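FYI - complex with 3,4-dihydroxyphenylalanine, inputs then prediction.
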Amino acid sequence: MQSKIDQYTAEISAFSPANADELETFRIKYLGTKGLLKDLFDEFKTVSPEEKRTLGKTLNEFKKFAEEKYQLLKEQSETSTDTQSDKQDLTLPGEGFALGSRHPLMLVRKEIIEIFKKLGFNVAEGPEIEDDWHNFSALNFPEEHPARDMQDTFFIKKGGEKGDIALRTHTSSVQVRMMEQGQPPFRAIMPGRVYRNEAISARAHCFFHQVEGLYVDENVSFADLKQTLFTFVQELYGEGTKVRFRPSYFPFTEPSAEMDISCTICKGAGCQMCKYSGWVEILGCGMVDPNVLENCGIDSSKYTGYAFGMGIERITNLKYEIRDLRLFSENDIRFLKQFKTEIV
Ligand code: DAH
């Protein structure tokens, strides 16, 4: 009997079930009502009283050992994923996971780029940290122009080879970089982030996004500018959107204009978005000032060009009726998930 107990003890110690079925077989074999433990107890009844004294203790210890081992394995099998996988129904459909969506500003940026690409424009980018030359001087800003003031510009470093270093206040700086690097024709749009030192509110932010446009070649006229922008607006906001140009002033264009479109929300009838005027301003534009061409090493007696610049936030607000600029940078998922789109 002792040798049987030793043998079973070794077997039980080495036992490790691969699944719940094996564990159940183990239980029946050793602990079941007709199992080996029961056999041992039956056999125990037949041994001499002397043997009983020593074997009794051994047998009880063995019983405890076998039961504890079974209990332990059972607990393990209930928590282990291996044995749980037996219970899983592999034919069930998988759990879906939430798809992200594009940020509305990036959606509109993409749309703007696609429209201008169809019109033959390239896409270019420039640095967000700029020097005074590219952000102001080359663009014909007079020395005392208020835009250079600490009020608007985030300065990083005073003085430098090309003047103070600052965060660019507009993407017009990329025009300069492009023209400095070659000779006409240039036909490109330049999207990017810009920075201004303004208090954050529903209507202003310290950073926002712009798209700059530039076309320089021989015989480029204001009529070309109007036609391009008209086509752009029809594509972006739909056929029948009206445009109007109002004279304006920018240091880097002459003549300069601001372009309004018929309000996309009320179609011109008058609403809060257009302040009941029926028109909303969407961009600034004009013919590139000859001084700017010359500053960039381009012969202004041979070449002319037009330029325009628009804020992506403004274009987006008009497309999706968003009235608070802060929504764009708060990353509130309830706002962002309204722009569900195919991820491409
Ligand atoms: N840079 C101007 C701004 O930030 C926008 C602008 C106006 C760009 C007229 C141009 C332009 O290229 O011709 O307000």
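Residues 49-79 form the longest helix (31 residues). The pocket of 3,4-dihydroxyphenylalanine is lined by residues 170, 172, 212, 250, 253, 284-286, 307-309 (CB under 6 Å).
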